């Protein structure tokens, strides 16, 4: 056994979207970080759809960006199409979605990791963990190398005992063409963690030249393109010189966006299935691993396979399919909405039954992948394991779906692992502070039976958690903990001051007896309709001003609700609290509380099966416990 000489503060296992954000966050804070992946050529690979954002997911991306993370910035630089979703609806659910050049995204993420100070990137296959008592102290690789670390973050995605299904054909793999991770699951079980199985899938990829676009509906990007990052591209060189080992840059690609280089956005296209598609699936449903019993894991409800759609929505004769380009230097198109695990020969029939795809050529077949995950009621809100100290979990290993959910967890795990090394308390975002907080709170409180996806409907205070104000909510916090660099924080301060001054001006400037802010509250009036509007303001600043004024009453109402809940959220429950002694507590509530071990009354109130009466009983017992402890200390 070879002991690597350098000891690390944080070891990150897996270099997908969670692993990258975890490693970068920890390194920026100042920890010495090792990022280990089985193949350095696939760092940041977009295994499924090369898109970022969408409903609620864009909120996560902007929150990561506001805190100092990377996913939004790389998306802006490698995006080939940008659109705003739900613009006709309220601002709480406005969302941004980008189609990326999948290879450019992957290469830039690898480039960023390679040049980040405090971060070592290595190609190794992790097979087990080193522990001392109930603490993790390092990892062992297939090369019989031991790397020691104060903390370890596991971000293995779909690779834990990954099994790929195409019809009755099965082969080990975390994604097509890559071997599964063997050994980590056994190590986690040996530590005492419970593991279960989930399933996800991906559609076929076809060649552009085999598509009849005349039968489809073109969907161009928005002009100007709505971007994710709050920070302009031209800051890149200044920051990169500060964070890189190298003093000069040997190319300009990472600082120049694809839109700047190409000069235009690429279009997506809308088409649909046919009644023939439905018949093909019904005739071959017995060959689908999902319906034959071959797959044990449960798939995502909100991103179902085409087989699922046909079965669950049998009254519908057709379903929408989106044709999405995968890059500027490839002819591959992604068939969004046609995920399947049917045999290849059936996939050919299936694809060619879609309007405009009558002569389509499949470049890569669709498949389903089944994998191990750790039910997240076994982790704290910090994403640290309850069973093994200094072990953190982030991404699909916690039962989530999507790049955005993974990246957000990675950022939190990286911050908290680094802070653990310097004896600082963990970062825990609350439900009223960020969608990141909503997601993590959901994960640790609700039994995961299918891959979790974030939605705006999951947030009680979604008008406070808009994508346009993510920097106003989180950037100061990101700067304070060492993630957001000074250059970006100064830009944020100027923006915040500009918004404050302009809102004050609108409140205090009148036409007759009517303040301009009251005029702006009228549905038909926009900021640029007001006399004396500031022509220098950017659209993102105007968006915030308009929402804050037009929805002032609703925003204040939600802020009042947040204040009312602070008392219950702040009431801590000791980890050793004995729920068995509470008379009158429901059996379901008692069992779930014992399993989840909520840290506060607020968290306990969100545990399934726990009623308001149960919360009242717990509060009474907490008071008795505190009074008893106070009496003993008085003695």
What does this structure look like?
- Helix content is 37%, strand content 18%.
- By secondary structure, the protein is α+β, with helices and mostly antiparallel strands.
- It folds into 4 domains: 2-202 and 224-260 and 371-472, FAD/NAD(P)-binding domain (3-Layer(bba) Sandwich); 208-221 and 269-364, Beta Barrel (Elongation Factor Tu (Ef-tu), domain 3); 485-557, tRNA uridine 5-carboxymethylaminomethyl modification enzyme MnmG/GidA (Arc Repressor Mutant, subunit A, Orthogonal Bundle), CATH 1.10.10; 571-634, Orthogonal Bundle (DNA polymerase, domain 1).
- Helix 2 packs parallel to helix 12, helix 2 (57-67) runs parallel beside helix 14 (470-480) and helix 8 packs antiparallel against helix 11 (344-352).
- The radius of gyration is 25 Å and the shape is globular.
- Residues 235-239 and 241-254 have low confidence and may be disordered.
Write the layout of secondary structure elements.
Elements: E1 2-3, E2 8-13, H1 17-29, E3 33-37, E4 51-53, H2 57-67, H3 71-78, E5 79-85, E6 95-100, H4 102-115, E7 119-123, E8 126-132, E9 135-141, E10 145-154, E11 163-166, E12 169-172, H5 184-191, E13 196-202, E14 205-207, E15 217-219, H6 236-243, H7 258-262, E16 268-272, H8 275-284, H9 289-292, H10 306-312, E17 320-325, E18 332-336, H11 344-352, E19 362-364, E20 367-373, E21 391-393, H12 403-421, H13 435-445, H14 470-480, H15 486-508, E22 510-511, E23 514-515, H16 516-520, H17 539-550, H18 552-570, H19 587-596, H20 601-605, H21 612-634
Parallel strand pairs: 1-10, 2-3, 2-10, 3-7, 10-21
Antiparallel strand pairs: 4-6, 5-6, 8-9, 9-10, 11-12, 11-20, 13-20, 14-18, 14-19, 15-16, 16-17, 17-18, 22-23
Helix pairs in contact: 1-12, 2-12, 2-14, 3-4, 8-11, 14-15, 15-17
